Amino acid sequence: MTTIQSPHDLEKLRDLAVAVAAEAGELAAKGQEGITVLDTKSSPTDVVTEMDRATEDLIRDRLLAARPHDAVLGEEGGGIEGSSGVRWVVDPIDGTVNYLYGSPDWGVAIGAEIDGQVVAAAVYLPVHGKMFEAVLGGGARLDGRALRAPEAVPLERALVATGFGYFPQRRLQQAKVLTEVIPLVRDIRRGGSAAVDITGMATGRYNAYYERGLHLWDWAAPGLVASEAGLRVGGLHSGPPSNELVIVARPGLYEELDALLAPLGADTDG
């Protein structure tokens, strides 16, 4: 178990995440113009670019230069073991398809995890010029200002964000779930980046969010920002967030959305 315990220690982790996310975001932003697909991952629609890998390399190098005994889990490069008890969870470009098509809706997400709990986070949206940051128990901030999510609204007045997976069968099931959800809410949005969507919840961009198929690096840093801003981040049946399903909303609305999604098989591929 790590010896990092004090709020000051956690703030130093956050500050490192902010500094590295800013540098990595600027690198990725400079490389967005003219970018091409380098490879695919789980399916032909699941792309990775040259800049995904270059950005993750920079993040890993900067983190380990500052804290050489930490572990790192990155979306593109896999895991590096460490001995300090701190593990960095990194998504170098969340929203790669958006990035590839020239959309501004993508971001760099870096979270620090201790004993399986995310304790510090930075999410940088370079094109929007927004830096979200959070410390466990210390609140969330946007560009240095305290961040608090708007209060809950009833489900029928909720603007709900979601996303779709890369496998055809999963997409088909997600579309079926959506046809049951959309008559019961104000409207649906599909942005294409979990980092943008989940941090956007803290600013009132949406009232609720759910998605199946996310990985730890997708929700780790954004999820801490959201929870420290007063949102509930979990899974189905009020469980923890997981690859099966992630739900984000203010308490009250969270339970309504959870109850709606549970019988629809939102956590399955049909």
Description:
- By secondary structure, the chain is of the alpha+beta class.
- It has two domains: 7-147, Fructose-1,6-Bisphosphatase, Chain A, domain 1; 155-264, D-Maltodextrin-Binding Protein, domain 2.
- It is built from seven helices and 15 strands.
- It has helices at 7-31, 50-66, 96-100, 168-181, 194-203, 216-228, 253-261, and strands at residues 37-40, 47-49, 71-74, 78-80, 86-94, 107-114, 117-125, 130-135, 139-142, 145-147, 159-162, 187-190, 208-211, 232-234, 246-249.
- The strands form three sheets. An eight-stranded mixed sheet has the order 4-3-5-6-7-8-9-10, with helices on both faces. A five-stranded mixed sheet has the order 12-11-13-15-14, sandwiched between helices. A two-stranded antiparallel ribbon has the order 1-2.
- Strand 11 (159-162), helix 4 (168-181) and strand 12 (187-190) form a beta-alpha-beta unit.
- The chain starts with 6 loop residues before the first helix and ends in a 9-residue tail after the last helix.
- The mean pLDDT is 93.
Order of helices and strands: HEEHEEEHEEEEEEHEHEHEEH
Weakly predicted, low-confidence segments? none
What's the CATH architecture of the largest domain? 2-Layer Sandwich
Strand content: 25-35%
Top CATH class of the largest domain: Alpha Beta
| Biggest sheet architecture | 8 strands, mixed
Using DSSP, what is the number of strands?
A: 15
- Name the CATH homologous superfamily of the largest domain: Fructose-1,6-Bisphosphatase, subunit A, domain 1
Q: How many domains make up the 3D coordinates?
A: 2
